[in-house]
Amino acid sequence: MDILSEITDHKRIEIELQKQAISTEQLRERVQELMANTQAPKRSMKQALASSPTGIIAEFKRRSPSKGWIYETAKAEEIPAAYQAAGASALSILTDEKYFGGSLQDIRTARPLVDIPILRKDFIIDEYQLLQARIVGADAVLLIAACLPQETCAALTAQAHALGLEVLLEIHTPSELAYITEDVDMVGVNNRNLGTFVTDVDNSFRIAGQLRQAIADTKNTSSTHDLPLLVSESGISHTATIHRLHNAGFHGFLIGETFMKTGQPGKTLKEFIKGIEQAPKQDIVTLKQ
After folding, report:
1. pLDDT tens digits, residue range 76-101?
2. Mind listing the pLDDT tens digit for each residue in 157-182?
3. In Å, what is the CA distance from 69 to each residue of 165, 258, 274?
4. 3-class secondary structure for 84-153?
5. Could you tell me the pTM of the whole model?
């Protein structure tokens, strides 16, 4: 069994146990009450990335299945706020406990301390998880093509939008391009193979041309939806890579381990962004639309 299958199998068990404690209907009632009684500001992750000069999605992650603990004592009341202060456009917060050392409480803790969008990053396979994301204050959710049938992914996308959540659809191979529809807000290319957890940032470059074409093909001439924004995920550790990815059509860059492993994620991010801004102008080429 590969790592992704192991994680999703465990996730199904985990969700069923959670439903025994609090039912889906009870969560729906909580969300309805929340949406009726609060006027939370709409934080669009897609717009935040599109308008940002750097497009950095800074990730809060304590561990990974392949490398073990990265920063075991990382505090959600400190690092997300430090990321925002350093210039992050959005946050990604891992909420899987067994494999990544995170929890929904991490988003709940960080939410009042930051005003940039928060992505709930987890292995989402059930509406229940979307309801949880809305309750704790996430603005967007990750849907991974590799662990969802295409029709389930489309249904979860619609359910997320009904809850006011944006969707970052994650793909890894050209075979998953069929998952892309105009309803998806962002499309991320994961440079990490979720079966082996081996990372290869060139994956984004290999798939970029086909990805742009697939997105262009989703555009309905009668639709007012903007095209999905492209995000490159994982394995990014050099500012030069950011410029190359931008020139290939990407406007969001999800980076976690590069920052978290230093023990000073906010400071490392600030230095990383400074490196992007100080790049020679000839290295920054505007993508031709």
Report:
1. 999 999 999 999 999 999 999 999 99
2. 999 999 999 999 999 999 999 999 98
3. 30, 14, 28
4. HHHCCCEEEEECCCCCCCCCHHHHHHHHHHCCCCEEEECCCCCHHHHHHHHHHCCCEEEEEHHHCCHHHH
5. 0.92
